[in-house]
Amino acid sequence: MTIKVRDIGEQGLLEKLQRFCPPEMIGDDAAVLVTAPGQSLVVTTDLLVEGVHFSHVTTSPEDAGWRAAAANLSDLAAMNALPMGIAVGLGLPGEVTVSWVERLYQGMTECLQKYNTPIVGGDVVRSPVTTLAITAFGQADPNRIIRRSAAVVGDAIVVTGVHGASHAGLQLLLHPELRQNLNDAKYKTLIKAHQRPQPRLDVLPILWAILTSTSQLPTPNSPLPVAGMDSSDGLADAVLQICRASDVGAVLEHRQIPFPEAFNRWLTEEQALEYALYGGEDFELVLCLPTEQANTLVEMLGQGAAIVGTITLGSQVLLHDKYEKFPDRILSLSQGFQHFSD
Amino acid sequence: MTIKVRDIGEQGLLEKLQRFCPPEMIGDDAAVLVTAPGQSLVVTTDLLVEGVHFSHVTTSPEDAGWRAAAANLSDLAAMNALPMGIAVGLGLPGEVTVSWVERLYQGMTECLQKYNTPIVGGDVVRSPVTTLAITAFGQADPNRIIRRSAAVVGDAIVVTGVHGASHAGLQLLLHPELRQNLNDAKYKTLIKAHQRPQPRLDVLPILWAILTSTSQLPTPNSPLPVAGMDSSDGLADAVLQICRASDVGAVLEHRQIPFPEAFNRWLTEEQALEYALYGGEDFELVLCLPTEQANTLVEMLGQGAAIVGTITLGSQVLLHDKYEKFPDRILSLSQGFQHFSD
Question: B6-143: which CATH number, 1.10.10.10, 3.40.50.10540, 3.30.1330.10, 1.20.120.530?
Fold first, then answer.
């Protein structure tokens, strides 16, 4: 017999989910965390709705859980914060199986354990649509928080990895016929990019080592020379958001945007570019920093990391093709997915 | 023309909501907060779903916002934490009006401003059902955190105010014919108890002053002599949860449970008792502490505060009527609302 959440109720479900939480976190109205002395608290929230952000068709509960956790850890990484814990609010229709919920938590925990991050509390309620609300907490040195608003003219724009892979994986799951012309290894790489994205917390110690060794540490007279955010809503969105917050423009070089190797001879150049710019959910970091440090960072990261452009005066984000096959193009947010159009 | 959220999109809506947030909190992937030295971070999450936790029939957007904020501040109060901020995740169907969302934020802000608590960030996404995910952050002295698990045999059980008023207000909104035999003042008191509940953050300085002046401060050898939680799921639930977490039982005295004055000659004794025990959402605190301090606390709080029972050996929560009109009754969680039964 398949047990559904309506069979065991909120209390019964909470009891089953307790094994995913550290025992000291259980049983009170709120969870208690301790930030290290001198560290600031960094907080980020995501709401994920079935049918909008994940689907039973393309996403197992384990993958939905992993992706939700990864998205929030990625937001912390984007600000140079070390994860401390996440709180999970879960809205469920009565007919969801208890097993589905346990598998969701299993996936979340798999991702979180890689980064020693506990689930520190939450809420389980009835809802007509499965909804996952995650709030992640991290701690950061207040002088070393990476913000969107700190880009300056002349900065190199670094991406920490390839773009478009997650969206390609989603398209393959939605339209299996697209698999033609893709070998197994490439297929699996793209699917995995969609199902198991990796938050780039690994970039931060490397970035910090480079800044330290080149005397780019922030002081009262020289703030942190790095701006950035993650590319969860696509590369174009990230660059546009940084430019808007920093009151600058940018030139992106089409031929330097790193695509997954699988895109060669599978997608057209136009498709590959659209996936990379607007596909989203690659969860790479987009960082603006001085060229010398940018070069070192790209070299040390390898694996698709690249300098994709430069911060400029003005407010336009221009996409340029050095081969001049494609005309110059001004990027805008409105080319991205419309979130409220049903 | 009525503007709907689908007309302005996620970005447009976020821009409209920014006026409810402090300017320094806007624009990054995450918000940054600073806890005072030596303070722990206390975190609580609530998920509220339209049709389950609030309804357009009984609740204006302002009231829904107020109630959501109050519920989370109440969870912080229950642990003796001072609010620092809340993060708001909002799921919205495209046809919701922008005005509705602004009024929701207006109500949240009205409640939060009473406690100097900013909205520090959030997320706005499309959802088939209006969903509100709130995570509240507070700070607390780690030695002074009130937990459910610290009740000991002999403790007096204090409630900080009357119970059943919020549920009565809801019933009046759902069934206007119940208003017979209630004068205007009483009607308004009950409606307001439902629409504008007050988190009892005001209790904490008083409690702390009493503990300090009677040398009940926690030391390494004597932990905090207070257990507690809030009564958001009803008085019975609060006492049962405390007893379970503390591995003790309790005797509640029927005649000491404080009801709203409006219940006299309006509800039967049975109804009044059920509303108080299982109605929920009164957001009072239920505190277990030594009798001497309990008496002082009740005296200082006034306004419906009362000692309603005693912590006992065992695990049963017994309801006793000193007039012996009602037989003794063992309370259980399963008498409360079933959350997943549709």
Answer: 3.30.1330.10
